[in-house]
Amino acid sequence: MEVSVAGEPSTQTASTGYDRAQELKAFDDTKAGVKGLVDAGILNIPRIFIRPSDELVEELNCQQNSFQVPLIDLDEIKGSNREEIVNQIRTASETWGFFQVVNHGIPLKVLEDMIQGVRDFNEQDVEMKKQWYSRDQMKRVRFSSNFDLYQSRTANWRDSLILSCSVSHNFDPQELPAACRETTLGYIKHVRSLGDTLFEIISEALGLKSEHLQDMECGGASTFVCHYYPPCPEPELTMGASSHSDPAFLTILLQDQTGGLQVLHQNQWVDVNPISGGLVVISNEKLKSVDHRVIASGVGPRVSVACFFAGSDAVPPRLYGPIKELISEENPPLYQTFWCQSILPNMQLRG
């Protein structure tokens, strides 16, 4: 790989002699991820992480604007304020496809412990981490850097621990890394419960019975993606997570206090400032899932945990499509029917 270690001159390779495939494989073969590069003391990031020239001209830091991501208090969701909260979530989902929630029922300690658990996993001895390194998408628990490393234009500056589970197939504790085992099991339980509540609210916001989306098994399978973004020596040249939208029915995102998450709203990038005890919810705009990204930073590490609710993983597979009760001449179907299994292998787990 093209890297510069502290105290050593930068090695430049002529563009005509650059072998991207070789550099990708060399990075992948270390099984140490991006943190391995940082631990080696690099001063210049490898070329595989540098954004294309057409993207480098873009200013990543948000310009001053008056937009603020909607913040919704769920404290009275079981009480007299339910209708108002349903209306707030309907408006946020239709206009932003993105909002933050507080007083959601998950204790602050559970959130903080989960963040620390992700740090503990990534900051343990590298040989321990390597035992979990894999690109086999059939593995329920795997660690890697950039799930799409060999397909994307450029690699993102982050490492990921991916946990795939479903209501019918809970984790055996021994399946999880010891460094974050107990915290992860507790967090999964709480987030699934919050997901059930949000599916109820969104069902009501759509004018359906509260159990409609749950009856469709929209939350049947879930994937937890624990991202670790080490500090970057040249953050202006790369991204923590490039712009993307989520194919899941619903995403619940926990982020630490570092910042860097941005959402595209009315063609402007808006900072999603961390709120202590808050969670980010990514639903869908009225027409499509909203684009978001994470900018790289010279400080860190940044930690986030995204839970993707991606529908049923039952066999035979369940067919999903536009909800018949919501289709009319004024609201024709926008998407075809599909099987979740047909899109899950290509999910862009970048939250």
TrEMBL record:
Alphabetic keyword roster: Iron, Metal-binding, Oxidoreductase
The name of this protein is Fe2OG dioxygenase domain-containing protein
Q: Which GO terms describe its molecular function?
A: dioxygenase activity; metal ion binding
Supply the SUPFAM superfamilies for this chain: Clavaminate synthase-like
What family is reported? Belongs to the iron/ascorbate-dependent oxidoreductase family.
Q: Which Pfam families match?
A: 2OG-FeII_Oxy (PF03171), DIOX_N (PF14226)
Q: Where is the Fe2OG dioxygenase domain?
A: 219-312
**Family matches, as InterPro entries:** DIOX_N, IPNS-like_FE2OG_OXY, IPNS-like_sf, Oxoglu/Fe-dep_dioxygenase_dom
**Coiled coil feature spans:** none
What are the required cofactors? Fe cation
Q: Does the record's keyword annotation contain Iron? A: yes
- The keyword Oxidoreductase appears for this protein: yes
Organism of origin is Acer saccharum (Sugar maple)
Please name the Gene3D superfamilies in this protein's record. B-lactam Antibiotic, Isopenicillin N Synthase, Chain
